[in-house]
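Sequence, please.
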């Protein structure tokens, strides 16, 4: 039927094919964050049918290309793009395009829109569109994503078109089972299936493994606006009204019908206050005094602010340039009636709560809160408020963990400090698992540690002990006790917080229904040289600020001991130095993850 496809890369390539209007792009826009969350780094190639341009007329790069550059590469410290003029009759060659992808930077390439190519594909099918199936004449289709009630006369793997999580599962499976055709080429995918106990894992491998075990809660509740408390929306919120309800003024000033040329002066015929209306229709040359938020009278389309107007003897003249339609907010310009105002899986913080209120909605359906049980282990760990025995330390981990879990909207059960005996631990774990979706402990999970906690965990649950290639926070236990997820965090207080931010946070957010969440990362210029080690991700506590050059700058908080909680207090972000870097020199760009979200 067409040229056989030979993947030139060392990573898998997977296509999505469908007739237009099936919702391919909509799906990919949801699938991409979902896969990112599972640790899969993505490249996307999209076939456009029309003459498109990514550049903007007036930009230097645009003008140089228009002047005749066949290839134009524009680059900054955050992004680069190569634009190539390639006027040809048929489609561009996918293999050639694939060769442009940097396979060491991503784990899989998703391809949208090359319907006819013999590349492994998922077919998206929406029966309501009345289009035929593609799989009947294309045997490169691996799976069909369609609606629940679609009859599928095929042995092919069936996926639910409306279940992004399920399609993501399939992509993960495909990526993990894919073998490079040439065994000499490295496979850069996260191979979840081969991960086992006591394994060295990278941060992204650990996270992928964890997220693949998290199933979001499905139970929902109807909650009043006053009790929303950062819960996660379980259904799209559809606006019952236009916001704003009517076209209104954005300024205190004068409303009139724009005309060209503008008359010397307008006749003042009335005044309209917010919450009221001007009953007549303005004629050319007439104006009304209008307040912010007041409806713009029929006939008028433009507002001039009071500061630029001169009113005398029922005549008004204006200073400065006037643009038709200025300072007027159109009915429905924020949100139109019937539009999705907030999508399912959105966390309802201050702005979202305000938006719901602005639509007149006083109740919404949210997911139930996950329940998290927390305890500490260790003979030396003592309860704050009590006298500190020699050789002991106060328990801080339980308090940082509880605060972060509460901030994420979880119900928290505090099980205290567990006395150093197998029977106490066993009883606590059993009780915790019966009550909580997630059980979090700290201490006693270091590889090589003689701690009894491992013995009990091995007996009660299905738990892996990992060495994550990161600092701080190398040891991490993860698995299941009964139906609950179990996190055994390290003992050191900073390691606990960093491990929580990197692993527990994404898991709790996914569990709570916030399925599109990704840690916010920003580029910043480091003002000092930061040391790291290849093969290990470094999470340095940092302080970021806006520099005089208008860019973000960051410095470390100084001493980075993994027990020094003061570094978390001083800092406002983690500086992340990936496992491929040895050191970052002063003046270079690093990524930072602000605490703002959680701490
Ligand atoms: P572990 O992983 O149990 O060997 O603990 C590593 C370090 O963290 C030790 O110095 C412990 O004293 C300390 N640590 C363990 N649990 C806690 C806790 N709940 N609060 C503060 N420090 C702790
Ligand atoms: Mg210990």
């Amino acid at each position: 039927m067409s040229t056989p496809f030979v993947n030139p890369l060392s990573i898998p390539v997977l296509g999505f094919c469908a007739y237009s209007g099936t919702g391919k792009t909509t799906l990919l826009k949801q699938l991409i964050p979902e896969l990112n969350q599972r640790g899969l780094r993505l490249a996307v190639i999209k076939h456009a049918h029309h003459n498109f341009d990514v550049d903007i007329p007036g930009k230097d790069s645009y003008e140089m290309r228009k002047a005749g550059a066949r290839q134009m590469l524009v680059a900054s410290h955050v992004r680069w793009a190569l634009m190539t003029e390639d006027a040809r009759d048929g489609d561009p060659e996918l293999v050639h395009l694939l060769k442009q992808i940097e396979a060491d930077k991503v784990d899989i390439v998703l391809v949208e829109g090359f319907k006819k190519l013999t590349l492994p594909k998922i077919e998206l099918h929406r029966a309501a569109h009345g289009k035929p199936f593609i799989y009947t004449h294309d045997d490169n289709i691996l799976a069909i994503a369609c609606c629940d009630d679609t009859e599928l006369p095929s042995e092919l793997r069936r996926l639910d078109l409306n279940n992004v999580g399920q399609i993501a599962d399939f992509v993960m499976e495909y990526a993990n089972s894919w073998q490079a055709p040439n065994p000499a080429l490295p496979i850069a995918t996260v191979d979840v299936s081969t991960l086992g106990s006591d394994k060295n894992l990278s941060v992204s491998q650990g996270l992928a493994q964890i997220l693949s075990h998290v199933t979001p809660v499905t139970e929902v509740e109807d909650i009043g606006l006053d009790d929303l408390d950062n819960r996660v929306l379980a259904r799209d919120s559809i606006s019952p009204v236009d916001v704003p309800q009517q076209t209104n003024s954005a300024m205190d000033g004068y409303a009139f019908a724009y005309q060209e040329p503008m008359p010397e002066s307008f006749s003042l015929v009335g005044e309209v206050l917010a919450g009221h209306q001007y009953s007549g229709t303005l004629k050319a040359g007439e104006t009304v005094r209008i307040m912010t938020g007041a409806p713009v009278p029929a006939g008028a389309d433009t507002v001039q602010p009071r500061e630029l107007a001169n009113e005398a003897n029922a005549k008004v003249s204006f200073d400065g340039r006037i643009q038709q339609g200025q300072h007027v907010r159109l009915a429905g310009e924020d949100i139109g009636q019937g539009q999705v105002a907030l999508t399912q899986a959105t966390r309802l913080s201050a702005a979202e709560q305000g938006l719901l209120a602005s639509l007149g909605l006083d109740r919404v359906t949210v997911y139930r809160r996950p329940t998290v049980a927390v305890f500490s282990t260790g003979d030396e760990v003592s309860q704050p408020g009590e006298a500190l025995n020699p050789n002991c330390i106060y328990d801080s981990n339980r308090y940082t963990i509880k605060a972060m879990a509460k901030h994420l909207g979880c119900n928290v059960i505090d099980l205290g400090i567990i006395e150093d005996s197998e029977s106490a631990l066993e009883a606590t774990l059993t009780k915790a698992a019966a009550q909580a979706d997630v059980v979090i402990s700290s201490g006693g999970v270091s590889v090589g540690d003689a701690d009894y906690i491992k013995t009990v965990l091995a007996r009660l649950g299905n738990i892996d002990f990992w060495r994550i290639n990161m600092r701080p926070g190398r040891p991490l236990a993860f698995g299941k006790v009964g139906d609950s997820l179990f996190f055994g965090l390290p003992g050191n207080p900073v390691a606990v917080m960093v491990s929580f931010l990197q692993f527990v946070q994404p898991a709790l957010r996914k569990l709570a229904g916030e399925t599109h969440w990704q840690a916010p990362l920003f580029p910043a210029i480091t003002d000092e040289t930061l040391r790291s080690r290849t093969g290990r991700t470094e999470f340095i506590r940092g302080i970021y600020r806006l520099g005089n050059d208008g860019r973000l700058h960051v410095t470390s908080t100084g001493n980075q001991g993994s027990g020094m909680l003061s570094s978390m207090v001083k800092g406002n972000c983690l500086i992340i130095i990936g496992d491929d870097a040895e050191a970052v020199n002063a003046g270079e760009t690093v990524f930072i993850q602000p605490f703002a979200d959680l701490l």
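Residues 136 and 153 are 10 Å apart (CA to CA).
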